[in-house]
Amino acid sequence: MVLLRRLSEDDFLPVDLKRLVEDVISSFDEVSRSRGLAFEVRIPQKLPLVRGYGPGIRLALVNLLDNAFKYTPRDGKVHFSLSYDAGRETLAGKVSDSGIGIPEKDRERIFDEFYRSPNAVKFSRSGSGMGMSIVMSAITLHRGTLSIKSGGGQGTTADFEMKLARAAPEAPERQEEPRLKVVVIGGVAAGPKAAAKARRSDQRASISIVERGEFLAYSGCGLPYYISGKVDDQKDLMSTSVGVYRDPDYFRKLKNITVLNKTEALSIDRKGKTVLVRDLASAREFTLPYDKLVLTTGATARIPSVPGGNRENIFPGTVSVNVLAL
Asked: How many CA atoms are closer than 13 Å to the CA of 181, on its beta-carbon side?
């Protein structure tokens, strides 16, 4: 993206590759469990401290894995491997999947901004078409290469390499603190705001939003304008002030927040600090551990006993209820 294009090696800082890679992997663990996908990971036990642009490296890995997960049907497989060549000072990696693949005629355009191949659009409505252009920008920034091998219905393999010179440790290594796990139940308005605030407060936290519906972060107060026709497109209710569509990809790729939409929270174990949830598409149930739990499910409005209160064209509002469980 434009931000990456304006950067240079003068902006490179020490990056803890091990921590960065482990954070990326953990952000996809819940996605793999909820969708029933096998997630095979092969990374070295030790990865060095390097000089680079950390957010760019993260964006490259997140977008490659996000595409692999998004376009792989349930019960499929995603593979992720990395290696570091100390002599050449290069990080090499591979992301492969058993998904829908990219037809040959569309392969040349996958790095174009806002482009999505027809089979990708058919398989998943969500997506901005910016993912692979971001990956290419990040890899190019680090004087690297990226190659894509794929075919329609045959899965996709992305092989990449980045030049990442070792960096001298700035301070003695200290014991790694466990990452804070934050689970937010409810994704209409307050939930995403709470998740975004948590991310600003803790860049390392593992943050997940559980939303029973398909859409999230939409302007509920704008619904009357959509119903009346003053707002033509539903996406306008779910876009930022600069027109960026806030779908699950937006939160995962740009905020590093996992979104489990079409997922219902069934019960909370306060003593064990876990939430039992169910994927509504597959009926698969699994638990999410938490250190902090935020409830933003709202409440059903009470309609007073007045004449006409039960008419079909009466649409009561909702009240947001936010509870922080410590």
From this structure: 12
Name 126's Cβ contacts closer than 8 Å, sequence gap at least 6.
70, 247, 248, 249
Q: For 39-53, what is each residue's pLDDT tens digit?
A: 999 999 889 999 998
Record the tokens describing residue 129, joined without a space. 């078409």
Handedness of CA 83, 32, 128, 186 (dihedral sign): negative
Query: φ and ψ at 286, to 5 degrees?
Result: -155, 165
Strand 258-261 and strand 181-185: pairing?
unpaired
Q: Is 320 exposed, middle or buried (0-12, 13-18, 19+ CB in 10 A)?
A: middle
pLDDT at res. 93: 95
Closest alpha carbon to 117 in 99, 98, 132, 103: 103
Strands 38-42 and 13-16, by their bridges, are unpaired
Diameter of the chain measured on Cα atoms = 81
Q: Do residues 162 and 58 make contact, with C-beta atoms less than 8 angstroms apart?
A: no
Nearest to residue 187, comparing CAs of 218, 224, 223? 218
Structure tokens at 124: 């998943």
pLDDT tens digits for range 284-304: 899 999 999 999 887 777 777
Residues 42/144/256/117 CA torsion (nearest 10 deg): -100
Give the whole-angstrom CA distance, residue 66 versus residue 128.
Answer: 12
